[in-house]
Amino acid sequence: MYRLAAFDMDGTLLMPDHRVGPETLAVLNQLVEREMAVTFATGRHYLDAQPIMAQLGLRGYLITGNGTRVYDNQGRRLHATDLPAEVAEQVLNTRWRTDASMHVFRDEGWMTEVAVPEEMLRAHHLSGFRYQLTELRGLPAFGNSKVCFVAPHETLLELQLQLQAQLGDAADLCFSAYECLEVLPLGCNKGTALDRLSRHLGLTLADCMAFGDAMNDKEMLAAVGHGVVMGNALPQLKSLLPQLPVIGHCQQQAVAHYLQHWLRSPCLTYSPEL
């Protein structure tokens, strides 16, 4: 019997309009009633993810910033990892040959130099989380949890080569979505963060199940006792984790359907047709 359930948010637990469906909320409450540790594991900032969990009436655990921060179910921070100062300084001060916009995340919020299109802000309508217009080159080198570049995928692929050439193995690069490339502290991801949280709770990763849809979920899904890939997942994720079950689309609240079946028959294998 698994004792912790970790959920990516966008593209997994949330529907495309960034809401939690009623069936999903009901099954999350069932997990809580069974004393499972419900955990949101997301690329979102704490100031974005925590209000969503609070609005749902859940007192769960949080892994935010793609593993850069870990919080207990009382909102107490258990762990924080930032980009090394020399890496942050290099990323912030290099004039990259790209049209991608740069976004920096610190404990105090989301920093960027240009106004963000309203379409990007729709993802944050539940929390009201907003960016702060800031001269990025003026930010301190310390205290930056991650840097994101946003642009069409082909543009980011070109930028990825530049970042790899400049940073080498000093940081990790990850596509959290087709149009979002992130620079993260080396070795920092949802998988390592979940390992830290599970050990804090006296569990192992074998006691955990997890759901995800993007490349920033790869390490977490591969490491847990039972990983589940969304039907709407990035093709790269499906190809890298062919051993894991693939369920339906987040639009149809596939996580809820999967867990409803699992709660009835936790020892049985789920079939997406059920």
Automatic annotation (TrEMBL):
One GO MF term: magnesium ion binding
InterPro entries reported in the protein's UniProt record: Cof (IPR000150), HAD-like_sf (IPR036412), HAD-SF_hydro_IIB (IPR006379), HAD_sf (IPR023214), HMP-PP_phosphatase (IPR023938)
Cofactor(s) this protein cannot do without: Mg(2+)
Record carries keyword Hydrolase: yes
Superkingdom of origin organism: Bacteria
SUPFAM superfamilies cross-referenced by the UniProt entry: HAD-like (SSF56784)
Recorded catalytic activity of this chain's protein: 4-amino-2-methyl-5-(diphosphooxymethyl)pyrimidine + H2O = 4-amino-2-methyl-5-(phosphooxymethyl)pyrimidine + phosphate + H(+)
Keyword annotations: Hydrolase, Magnesium, Metal-binding
Active site, renumbered: D8
Keyword Hydrolase in annotation: yes
Binding positions (Mg(2+)): D8, D10, D213
Entries under Gene3D superfamilies matching the protein: 3.30.1240.10, HAD superfamily/HAD-like
Pfam families associated with the record: Hydrolase_3
EC number: 3.6.1.-
PROSITE patterns given in the database record: COF_1, COF_2
PANTHER family: HMP-PP PHOSPHATASE, PTHR47267
Function: Catalyzes the hydrolysis of 4-amino-2-methyl-5-hydroxymethylpyrimidine pyrophosphate (HMP-PP) to 4-amino-2-methyl-5-hydroxymethylpyrimidine phosphate (HMP-P).
Family: Belongs to the HAD-like hydrolase superfamily. Cof family.
Listed name of the protein: HMP-PP phosphatase
Organism annotation: Serratia ficaria
Gene: cof_2
